[in-house]
Amino acid sequence: MGPTGSGKSSLLNALAGRLPAGGSLEGEVLVNGAPRDAQFRSISAFDDIMFPNLTVRETMLFAARIRLPASISDQAKGALVDAVIGRLGLAKAAGTLVGSAAERGISGGERKRVNIGLDAFQAQSVMEALHTLAGDGRTVVFCIHQPRSSIYDMFDQLLLISEGCLCYAGPAAAAAAHFAAAGHLCPPGHSVADFLLDIASVDFRSPEAEAASRARVKGLADVCAAQGAAAAGKDADPEAQAQQIVAVHAVERTPTSSREVADEAELPKFANNPAREFQLLLSRSARQASRNHLEHIVLLSQTAIIAASFAILFSGLDPSKPGGIQDEVSLLFLSGVTVAMNSMMGCILLLSLEQQVVNRERASRAYRIGPYYLARLITAAPLRVIQGLLFSGIMYWAAGLNPSVSAFFIFVALIICEDLAGQALGLAISAAVPHEKIAMAIAPLVVVLLMLFSGFYINASTIPAALAWIKWLSHLYYGLMGLAINDFSGRGGWACPLGSPPGCSVSGEAILQQLGFGGRSLGTAFMGLAVLTVGFNLLGYLALRVRKPRYLALRAAKKRAQLIPIHVQQLEGVLMVAEKPSLAKSIAEFLSEGRMSSRHSNLDVHEWQGSFQGRPALFRMTSVIGHVLSIDFPADYQSWEKVDPATLFDAPTLKSEANPKARVVRHLQQEAKGCDYLVLWLDCDREGENICFEVIENTVPKMSQVPGQQVFRARFSAISAPEIRAAMARLVQPNQCEALAVDARQELDLKVGVAFTRFQSRFFQAKYGNLDSAVISYGPCQTPTLGFCVERHQAIVAFQPEPFWVVRPRATKAGHALNLEWGRGRVFDAEVGAMFQRLVVEAKQLRVVDVGEKEERKGRPHGLNTVELLKTASSSLGIGPAYAMQVAERLYTQGYLSYPRTESTAYPPNFDFHTLLAAQRSHPIWGEYAASLIGNFSIPKGGTDVGDHPPITPVRCATEAELGGGDAWRLYDFVARHFLGSLSPDCVYKKSKASFATGSETFSTSGTTVVRPGFTAIMPWTAVQNAPLPPLQRGETIPIAEVELHQGKTSPPDYLTEAELIGLMEKHGIGTDASIPVHINNVCERNYVSIQSGRRCVPTELGITLIRGYQLIDPELCRPQVRAYVERQIDLVAKGEADKEAVVAHCLHEFKAKFAFFVAHIQRMDTLFEASFSPLASSGKVLSQCGKCRRYMKLIASRPSRLYCPTCEDVYNMPQGGSIKLYKELACPLDGFQLLLFSLGGADGKTYPLCPYCYNHPPFEDAPRLGDKASGGMPCTLCTHPTCRHSPARMGVAPCPACEGEAPGTLVLDPVSAPAWRLDCSRCSFLIYLPKNLHSAKLAPDSCEECGSTLLALDWKKGQSPLAGGDTQHTGCVVCDPLLTQLCEVKHGRAFVRRGGRGRGRGS
To answer: Membrane-spanning regions, if any (predicted)?
Structure first.
């Protein structure tokens, strides 16, 4: 890498052995430690010159067949080509013609990938292809000027040169650190590539700036040379070091001796024999020639026009008229000259255009020149024959030449022979002259010379003897000879020249004698043309052999320079990966003590130097964003319509990148290169352990291989400097058993959940219209969670209230009302209650039977775990569990809380309470309380330690203002108070109780007196009420003021609160601390449960019907015992006590049997649905016409949106989350269905047309889909059919610059976006707003010459045009036109909806 003129290209040419002859080259090139061999030049790809009329696959297949040994079969070569095409990302363009500047073909980036070269155009895609090749074990050496950051991050090693000086050589990732040590610090957030070019460039704006920049460059070169010399243990001369680069950059252009040119004899042998080469070259030339339609049309049209002109001009030749001889001879001469000239000039241009490709292939020793030349001659000959026939057929009879049929065919044969001779002469000139322009200048001179000796202008018999031999080299001479003999021989009656006696006539033989052809025969003419054709072709062949490409030979230097290894200090490379970018930044700040440099690749990367295991190391800290990989079924099992859900239990699974757009996999692989060790800072739970092995899978293969342990695991519970440094000091190995347990759960949930969900959704959504749920899902954890809610609902519905009566006497002592409880509690008979009331009334007073008092304790809380946090957040703070976890995790990543996912309620023995208490001393609310506990607390006892993480605690002091108030502060406040409460003493209080008797009935009352509040002082919501009893003495009597017989009714239980539901899930083992909020959120999103006031979970009609159906078919499907059993099996896997595959197979076998039974008895559940929901036939509103029956279909607007045809009884899924309406009553050209228009809400919501049938049943194999797998489909903007008026082929403007992957989207003109016209990507959310105030926007018929995009024809409203002179119309390219690029606005809108929903956060 280096600035312009630094010597990059010259160095690359020298390394590849392709530096053109014309100077001298000294030095040494080693490949894998050995001198570069002759084969090296043949495997170096440089330019992108290719035959334009061959497809990408044909181009690469020819290269494989011509270069690979004959021992490899053509089938194997074809397979290799297909593999390379896939590797280079060219599968989409494999059948596309390469094209040229005049003929549209593949893009510039694809052209480079075909040839594996590099320039600035399409650099990103080209670099990705090269990066993939390098990842497969190949070595890729290239030069580049100014790469952007994403490209620079792909580099492994970097050579930075400037003005011929070596400024840096070493790992690209270490370049910034190298120059920082030299006093040149890369500014934060600045591109490293731009920074390197800035410091390596010479500033020519002023003499002072130039001098300063040259001094800087020299200083960098001196530092680089000095470091290299120190590393080698020898002194090095920086000037001599620089001269080694300068000698390559500034090659002296001196006359080249034969010894300085690379000897072709040293090159490797050809891969194929001449016959095989001829076969391959003939096939390629034939394809190239047959597809050059434009050239053929132009040539034949030109021939036809000239022939017609001759026919008109010379029509009706009359031998009896004076001058008839001259006219006829002129016509014969012009016929031959015209045809010969056309073929000669055409061949000069043809061979000149091919010469660059041929020279490159010859340099690579692909084939011999003989087979190429012969193949070129044979493929060009048919066109010459057609040209001769066309010319003769039009002109001959109309001009009135020799009327004999045999004479006509001889004329045709002579014209074709003369045409072939002209072609041979053109090839000879083109082969002999090195430049096209020189050849075009020489050709007319040669033609004029040959015309002069053709016998037309000068009689052949009168040519001076010294020059007479030239006529034998003129094919025009032999051509005119043959044509004249054919036309005049044996004929007579030509009028004598003017001035001759009347009635005088001349015979044909006399005319021939006069022309100098007397005594000649047709055989002589044909023989002469044949000999010259062969001779000219032989000259062309020899000229091509002589004109082989020549390159400078590398010769040993006269004085061998001291070779000095150039490299930076060798440091251990340590890659560290956290689970989130914010965590990575915090951990890097703690470990580097703030002395880190940061850069942005796909994710942030922080680098610093330090020590790892006692050795100097370069640390590189980055992150993932959750799971790197996700499990799913292969493409063959993705279709809901074609795949039987029962087969999913035995279907294979695969793991693919969880978020392809984030490019986390590529980021990890890139950052892993050159690193020796991996330290994993993922969350310390099972999910984190699973992510550890996902990171390992994508990094370790790319890392350097070193002996001993390479992968380490950091275990930590809080984001604080002491905790992070302690974790770094006690690194462990990752736990594969826990990772396998997560894999087992993922596979079970995927297969069981998807099988049941697909079957249920398809069955019920095809029958009922008002389900109001996108999918009718089943989940091994989700469904038992719903079951708890429905069971409580069923208990409420089944409850029968019953009246009861309670006797309540009222009495006071010392002004204190006594709250008396009846010893019998309550009775369920009114008469009995009345009887007891009378007895108490008759007694009139209460007698104190007993008074007692005892001291009790309310124990302080144990440590706070996740479940208790979620229960309190829901019941006391009104925060939903899913949102509560989001808030807690955010506080954790910001360093305010410890890790919020833990099952432990007991603190570990070595827990550092003092540090946490000290951090809270300065808090304005509980600071004094925290200070009072320091040195005065007892270590909490009890609780459960499951060995994962300590209980949740505050890590850093935070105020309400610092956290921004709201839910974050309320959650932090609770955690902090709970932590302080767990270290506080128990609450001590006295409980007093008094018993009373009146008649035969007894009553009692109680009171409490707080002795020491203990932990309740900081947790006031747990405080004991201070309600003492009045002084009472045994035997004392108290009068009764009134006796009430209170009537009440028994009440049903209330709906489960979220806190109660969480408790039930924990009790029955449904989910983990991490997944419990997810399962609750899922049943809410699916519209099975709604969260109502008091955070109560009320099941919907759909949820109730589902659970009742499961209870009718197989109650175990919704009971927690089945899932609890599965969780116990997975726990065994996590402990290493059971095999993962065996557990999965066993559980799948059980669920597969249940699924088969469920399918067989689905009618039991269907009966319940039929009673609760409306059938499709009675739902929805009429919208559009069916393409099958031509009747109208209904739109079911409730979730999921569907179209239903009552006649055909077909259901068609629609995009979700937007509005659907009829689109101008247009019909799909493929199936006749009326088109619909789907619109998403919001200013930037996309709008696109779709055909209901094509959306659900794409007409093309592997057609792209929009949206998710359940409801996604193919709208018109993804249709590849050429007759679809909304397809990218008709409405597409340019490739989407934001799309990624092998199938990027196309920017399509939104047909209904007026007046805010815009272009939408057919796949992603990218959109471009066209200039404002447009009256109309249309696609122009032409394409951009620079980028190939379709031009836009824009028409502004009058008086609101930005164009000069008030013009309102403009046609331009949205990519290249400076006017349009300034006026357009780029945005990311909404492409499709993935339904979120209820149950998220407060009040949901």
So the answer is: 297-317, 329-353, 405-433, 445-470, 525-544
C-alpha 554 chain-centroid distance: 44
User: Cα(1080)–Cα(1097) distance, rounded to whole angstroms?
Assistant: 9
DSSP state of 1344: -
Give the separation between CA 347 and CA 443, rounded to whole angstroms.
11
**Count of helices and strands (H, E) across the chain:** 42, 42
Q: Residue 616: is the preceding peptide bond cis (ω within 30°)?
A: no
Please tell me the predicted confidence (pLDDT) of residue 699.
94
* Range 1196-1207 average pLDDT: 82
Cβ-contact 725, 742 below 8 angstroms: no
Output the six-digit token pair for 460.
Answer: 């052949």
CA distances, 1305 to each of 554, 626, 1327, 1393 (Å): 48, 27, 11, 18
Whether 899 is a known active-site residue: answer yes
- CB count within 10 Å of CB 457 equals 9
CA 1334 to chain centre: 34
- Comparing CA positions, the residue from 1203, 1244, 1243, 1242 lying closest to residue 1220 is 1203
Q: Which residues contact 685 (CB under 8 A, 6 or more apart)?
A: 901, 948, 949, 1074
903 phi/psi in degrees, rounded to 5: -100, -5
Q: How many CA atoms lie within 13 A of 834 on its CB side?
A: 3
* Three-state helix/strand/coil letters over 1239-1261: EECCCCECEEEECHHHHHCCCCC
Radius of gyration (Cα) for the chain, nearest Å?
45
**Tens digits of residue pLDDT in 1283-1294:** 777 777 677 888
Residue 391 and residue 385 in contact, taking contact as beta carbons nearer than 8 Å: no
CA trace torsion 1100, 1106, 1109, 1114 (10° rounding): -130
What 3-state DSSP class applies to 269? coil
- Band of residue 324 on the pLDDT scale cut at 50, 70, 90: low
Locate all alpha helices (DSSP H) within 400-435, ordered by sequence.
Answer: 405-432
**1161 φ/ψ angles, rounded to the nearest 5 degrees:** -120, 25
Q: Are 1193 and 1235 in contact (CB under 8 A)?
A: no
Residue 1201, CB-side half-sphere exposure with 13 Å CA sphere: 19
**SS3 assignment, position 579:** coil
Between CA 1051 and CA 1049 the distance in angstroms is 6
- Whole-model pTM: value is 0.57
How far are the Cα atoms of 469, 479, 1147, 1166 from residue 463, in angstroms, in the given order? 9, 18, 105, 109
- pLDDT at position 560, please? 45
Judge whether 1380 and 1356 are in contact, CB under 8 Å: no
User: Is the pLDDT higher at 593 or at 320?
Assistant: 593
Query: Could you tell me the two tokens for 212?
Result: 């300063």
Active-site residue identified among 152, 892, 899, 1223: 899
CA 528 to chain centre: 66
466 within 8 A of 323, measured Cβ to Cβ: no
DSSP per residue, 1165-1177: HHHHHHHHS-BGG
Dihedral class, residue 1095 (left if φ above 0, else alpha if ψ from -120 to 50, else beta): left
Strand blocks (E) in 1136-1197: 1181-1185, 1192-1196
Q: Which residue has the tokens 């449960």?
A: 1089
Whose CA is closest to 920, among 933, 911, 905? Answer: 933
To which residue do tokens 């009884």 refer? 1209
Whether the Cβ atoms of residue 731 and residue 713 lie closer than 8 Å to each other: yes
Is 178:168 a contact under the CB 8 Å cutoff?
Answer: yes
| pLDDT tens per residue across span 494-547 | 667 655 666 677 777 777 777 777 778 888 888 888 888 888 888 877 877 777
How open is the CA angle 1012-1017-1019, to the nearest 5 degrees? 130
Give the pair of three-digit tokens for residue 614: 């006692």
More confident residue, 61 or 745: 745
Residue 1038: strand pairing partners? 846
Is-contact 482 415, C-beta < 8 A?
no
Q: Alpha-carbon distance 594 to 603, whole Å?
A: 19
